[in-house]
Amino acid sequence: MGIVNNISSNMILGELHKNTKKKDKASAQLALGEKIRNAGDDASGLAISERMRVRIRALGQDEANVKNGASMLRTAEGAIQSQINLLRTIKAKVIDAHNDTNTDVDRAIIQKEISQYYDEINDIAAETTFNKKLLLLGNTVQETVKSWVVLDHAELVEDSDSLDLIPNIFDTLDHDKYGNPLVGSFDTFGSASDNVPYDGYNLKTVSATTITGYDTAATTTATESKLHGGSENTPNTIDIDLTGLNNAGLDNTSFYVRYRYGTITYVLTTDTSKNYKNSGNAYEINISGMTNSQVASAIATKISSDLGSYYKAEVSGEKVTLTTKAPDSTYDNKTYYNSTSYYNVAGTTLLGGDYNAGVNRTAAPATGWGNFRLSGGADEVGHYVPWTNPETDQTEQKYVKDKDAVQATASKSLSGVPSGSGITLSSSYPSYSTAYLVFVDGNSGFQNDTANGYWTVGKDYSGSRSLAGMTVKLSGGTVTFTSNYAGASGNSYGITDSVAGSTATSTPDYYTATSSLSGITNHKNAADGDTAHWDWDLSGYNTSDANKAEELIESMVGKAFSRSYNSTNYEFIDSGKAPALESISKINGSNTIDLNSIRASVESGKTVSEAFANLITSKLGSSATPIKNGADEITGVQINASQPGTVGNNQSVIFKEGGLRSYTVDFASAFNSKGVSDGDIASALDGKGIRFYCATDSAQWVNVQFVNGINPEDDDRPTSGTESLDIKTFVVDVSDVTDVKSLVKTIYEGDGNKNPQGLEDWLTNNYRHFFHVAADYENGSITIYDSRRYTVLNDSRYLDRQEKGAKIADGVLDNVVQDKRYVYVNDLVIHHTDRSSANIHVRIPQTTMDHIFGYKVGSYSLDDYSVLTSEKREKLLGTDGPPKVEGTLDKGLQYLIDANTLIGAQIVHMEHAEANIITDQESTMAAESVIRDADMAKSSLELATAQILSQAGQAMLSQSNQNSSNILSLLQ
After folding, report:
1. Is the pTM of this model over 0.90?
2. CA-CA distances (angstroms) from residue 82 to 70, 424, 451, 776, 851?
3. Residue 300's closest CA among 315, 281, 317?
4. Are 670 and 804 members of one domain?
């Protein structure tokens, strides 16, 4: 018997198993919602899906980080905005304090408020946090900037003295304020041959023979050149002829004699007891019993006695002849001696008159007072101490007050004082004064009773008035007298009981009248002699050649001349050489003559000699006249004496030459000797400098320091100097210098860009003493000079006179030295991923006050940013210049605004980043869903299909198995 396999059943069973598996898979997909349950479902799909799921989760955290970061930055933004608001308030307060309607006390109060705002700004920076994280304090150095340290002493800046511009003449010179010798490679402004050795200022007389075109006919010495050609003047004569007048006709006649300084009136009288009055002097000549000849002699004798220096008086019979004795005086003989203004005689009449009548002034005494003086007055007490005036360096006696002056006083009760009684008040300082006061019943105020000549006041009045140099005050029935002027002199002020009577004069005091003396004749016969002169011969310059003009200008510039009868110095300068030293006056108070105008005159067609002559005559006026040749061409100029006559031959022309206390620094020669080319100037000068010292102040000098570029981010350089050291430092940026000419130009006047202010302007506006600077662009040099046009080393007003006057040295000696300051930021990571391009870092600037104002703690403090001085207020607010300086407050506001701008930009960045993250996340999720998530409809269909096929398979398997069972049953 054989049992065979049921092949059909096995086939059906295999299909059933397949369908069951499909059903289970579809059922699992529907249950999990995923079509990939494990690597077996889709190995590559599962790998891709898992990577996408990691990305989706990371993007979710990115979004959270960005939101938190934006919130943190908004916290910082709000804090900085509060600081901005506080700084705006501070600026308003500083502007308020800078108004001079405020007193120093007001400014001190304002400063207290400002200091509180400073503290609040610092508190905001120190306390602003997010989740306990400090936001406005830095943790990372963003940059290092140049800063400064202010010392209490001066130090030589390292390597600043290696320029070798100044020769080493003296290794040590003078002393510091402690008496220690100053060490350096010094040269001096002056020399041993100066008028005062090493003073540096010179005004020396030079011989006229060294002057182009000098007068060869003049008598010339080393100190003067005499005028020549003056001849005698003819004097004036005046006759007083008494012929025909009898003695009785001369009685009570008068005449005046005028001379240069006034008038004397003479009265001829037979009765000297008479009273004569005249506005000038009135001298009597007693002619009682005299003949006319005797009267003439008496007149001549009296005039010779009174006016013998001006007139020679001669008598011929009954006539007196007066001859002027000073025809060579400084007044023109012909014009003045012949006029009626000087040196003449004329008749006059003296008119009679009387005094005004007096005022009837009487009042009864203020009973019981008596006479008394004010008391208690005391003079101010003080003493003088030596004091050096910082504006002049000169030592003066400064008054120091110890005690105030005290006013003298006195008081009296008005009780029992009868109405109508009075007192006399008198004072003697500062001028004598008297007033009369009468007390009346009632409370009427002070009234001037002009009819009686006194003041009245009610005894019950309350008030005061100034009378006779004292204040009279009534109050509560008491009168108090107080001297208006404080001091012991008030103790002499007195009160007299009663008003003294003063009655009118019954008979007025009359003066005797006179009649004019006749017979006076002014001949006006004076005549001028020839005027002496000094001839400036410029015939060699009778040409319009520009080269000859330059030759004459060069020979004259720096020279000066004066005339012996006039102290004015006429000094030749050349403004065409400005700003060189040739354009600067070197003689104190001189009247300058600018030779530059010769160039323009010659260019317009005039000859050099005519142009020069016109210059001289325009200054001297009629005392100079042009010299002409036979062709009527101007070939020189004639300097005339002050008046005609031989007196002019004693006058002279004096030539001088002035030299300022100065020192010339020759950059061109120094660079040539060192082989420094134009392109190397900036680097050669970087960090180097020079310094020059005042001749009368050992603690005062000026540094000139060169730098090859200035970083705008660097801290502002503090002002040099201390309370005991008057140091000034001028910094020159030479980074744009292209040659020696541009270097000198930059030093002198600035370049309008990196150097908005030149040394000359800086000295004028910042240096309170005497140094100035001139420049020679073409020759590549600057000249430093002292504007005091007089010697100082022999001047007792200067106590701190230096051993060898003003001096100069290589190197910068300063109490401000270079340092560095760190600028901090808070470096915060907001978003950091595996993709560097998507990372977000933010650097929040530190916003403490030292960062806002840009100073190094220790070198400066907030006390330096106050409103207590004008200088500090201008530092906070800035100045319009020159040069224009931005205020610290505006810089600080810009610093905070920039910080907030940065934060705002980062917030916007984060908002965009968040949007991008969300988009990326959504896209990734969608892609991952396509790969991994089940298609519910498809999976349901597959499940239904698998279930139907499974059920069909089971039926078919059952049927197949039934057939096999039937066969087996037959075998039983």
Report:
1. no
2. 18, 74, 78, 55, 16
3. 315
4. yes
